Amino acid sequence: MSVAKNTYNRVTTNSLLKMKANGEKISMLTAYDFTLAGLVDQAGVDVILVGDSASNVIAGHETTLPITLDQMIYHAGAVIRGVKRGLVLVDLPFGAYQGDSKEALKSAIRIMKESGAHAVKLEGGFQVKSSIERIIQAGIPVMGHLGLTPQSIYKFGTYTVRAKEEAEANQLIEDAKMLEEVGCFGLVLEKVPAKLAEKIALIVSIPVIGIGAGNGVDGQVLVLHDMLGMSKEFSPRFLRRYLDLHTEIIGAIQQYTNDVKTKDFPNESEQY
Fold it and tell me: Which residues are catalytic?
């Protein structure tokens, strides 16, 4: 399958703004380690998100809440070393920015200095406005995240679609406008009605990246492990599996185990 080419040798926040202005869709995937980040980058993905979803898919936690700032920096540093073209975006983890804007800035600075990342992402609207402003004023690019915000899962009590009611939809629009006004270079909309997401993408001039938000936005993001089919347990409507690595990997390991036990591996050509 061919991959759409563009002229961006290095993707920056300015590149993403140009993509939106030109009607070019933006691709985003997660990565948490050097090897897979390199493959994602070589495949031409525009934005590589070092997501706090590492808490789930790497560490096995039920939510994104347990992952620490130190752990996010570790993963981000590994990803940066594998990427040559894409913009590397790092989630600020739960507890690293909600307390006050000074703490938020310290967290963002640590990510940028210690990992070499290009930008940070954080969840929330007006309630974290002061933190976003302070980080941006320090020269650090920020992407917002609205709709379903997994770090607030215990507040919501469910992973269901957000902003189906008029009041919440209107608040979402206002939050999106605010993120643009304070200087965010883009925002993620997670699990919101497609028509509302499209409306927001038309209202704001910054790129809107969707996950479970329809195709009327400016780009899409998925968790790499999900779209590669490495697990069969997580099957939301918005997920398209492009491979079935769950079956392929288990099959390969079973074959290896069998070859070892039957003394087929290593053979004469595979030894010194």
Answer: 190
